Amino acid sequence: MQSLVEKYNVPGPRYTSYPTVPFWKNNSLSVADWLKTIERNSNTFDTDDISLYIHLPYCESLCTFCGCHKRITKNHAVEGPYIDAVIKEWQLYNEQFNFTPVIRELHFGGGTPTFFAPDELIRLVRAIFNTDAIDPNEAELSFEAHPNNTSREHLEKLHAFGFRRLSLGIQDYSPTVQQAINRIQPFEDVKKVHEQAKQIGYTSISHDLVFGLPKQRMNDIIDTVTKTLELRPDRIALYSYAHVPWIKGNGQRGYDESDLPQDNEKRSLYEKAKSMLEAKGYIEIGMDHFALPHDDLAKAFQDKNLHRNFMGYTTQNTDFLLGLGMSSISDSWFGFAQNEKSTEKYMEIVNSGVIPIFRGHVLSELDLEIRGYILDLMCHFETTLKADSPYKEVQDAIIGRLTEMVNDGLVVIEENKVCVTEIGIPFVRNCCMAFDQDLADKGQRENLFSKTI
Ligand code: SF4
Q1: Architecture label for domain 1-18+364-443
Q2: Whose C-alpha lies nearest to ligand 1, atom 2?
Q3: Which tens digit of pLDDT belongs to each residue from 99-116?
Q4: Is the CB–ligand 1 distance for residue 59 below 6 Å?
Q5: Where in the sequence of the chain do the CATH 1.10.10.920 domains occur?
Q6: Of all protein residues, whose CA lies closest to atom 4 belonging to ligand 1?
Q7: Lowest-pLDDT range, 153-162, 180-189, 312-321?
Q8: Which of 64, 68, 183 to mutate for ligand 1's pocket (most ligand atoms within 8 Å of CB)?
Q9: Which fold, 20-324?
């Protein structure tokens, strides 16, 4: 395993989309062209189901490991105007849709959604759904909860509206690591929010952990996973820390590269956590996720219904993800579009009555075929090459690029079927890279992605 980690730990995408964002072709996609891809979606697929992602960007302080689009402020006067803008953006889309969207899932991400007062969040969902509460069986509602500022009022009011899922950002419980990443949150505080949420009736609680953080050592991972198991969340995300200071600027320069566990040491942190979680009944799902067998994510993985989009893994297999708020990315299956990344500019454009995208990509037929393969691999660790594909040469080239992984026992190819083996699972991103036509055409470019392991 050790030499495989050294061999395959190269910069590579996380494949929440294909083509990946750095290879999008339309740096100034027009709103009209973007809307045409949505129209193609509604003309192609039977349902009007959509997923909604709402980005709530404000945080009170900067965590130095953070790779999200956020604005740091302690001024809570920003809440109202921002929520107004998101509601307005939703209205702008509804004026353009030639169908009535049925929202199957909604997720508040950030930033820190719980930076916002509970009543502001409720005002937002009331305006989106046009009702005072929704049936949790009709739509899956979830939010990211910062353990340091999620109040009982947040939990109660969102639950009363219909929210049943939340994810708590944990990272690591070691005081040394917490100091290095400037995010101090003792276990007792997390425990309090977790237990309140359980008591109120949330049915799926996720804990987000990160491995590979600065100053993180094996004992820290063991202690963090032990504490996590004490609370036994339904889902656990175990993300690899993505060190990309050339993209994220000063936020990730608060520590030295020598503080970071590298290659084999980093991978062994993951392997240790994984073995501890599996020993307690968690199932590894896709890449870097675990769930207890009763959880919908585990069931979807076992039933091969798992889906992956810009929000990560999801059980709701809708064909259209609409992202609202600054920097959000939307996916109409036939196209991608990203909103303005500056909060001020986002609000200014929305308030002038214009959909605030600034770049995107319209997928070619080849893009669509390859995105299907990559989605299969990321969700199910296997895919079948289309027998009636007009892109046989591309398929042959993919098989050629997989040869080394086959020789290393990471991938098995039988006729048209490509399967990632048990030992190949940590290298699934590398397998997807063999399918990635943009990487094949343009080569790996430095400083675009974090390392795959
Ligand atoms: S990790 Fe979360 S709370 Fe911390 S700065 Fe990033 S978005 Fe804000």
Answers
A1: Orthogonal Bundle (1.10)
A2: 111
A3: 999 999 999 999 999 999
A4: yes
A5: 1-18+364-443
A6: 63
A7: 312-321
A8: 68
A9: pyruvate-formate lyase- activating enzyme (3.80.30)
Residues contacting residue 360 through CB under 8 Å, at least 6 positions apart: 24, 26, 29, 33, 34, 335, 336, 337, 338
Tell me how crowded residue 409 is: count the other CB atoms within 10 A of its CB.
12
Closest ligand 1 atom, residue 65 Cα: 1
Comma-separated ranges of CATH 3.80.30.20 domains in the chain: 20-324
Per-residue model confidence as pLDDT tens digits over 377-412: 999 999 999 999 999 999 999 999 999 999 999 999
- Indicate the pLDDT class of residue 91, thresholds 50, 70 and 90: very high
How far are the Cα atoms of 68, 251, 348 from residue 326, in angstroms, in the given order? 11, 19, 11
- Per-residue confidence (pLDDT) for residue 316, from 0 to 100: 81
DSSP bridge partners of 238: 209
Q: Is residue 146 in contact with ligand 1, taking CB distance under 6 Å? A: yes
Record the tokens describing residue 119, joined without a space.
């009543």
Q: Give pLDDT, residue 251.
A: 60
Question: 170 C-alpha vs ligand 1 centroid, how far in Å?
Answer: 11
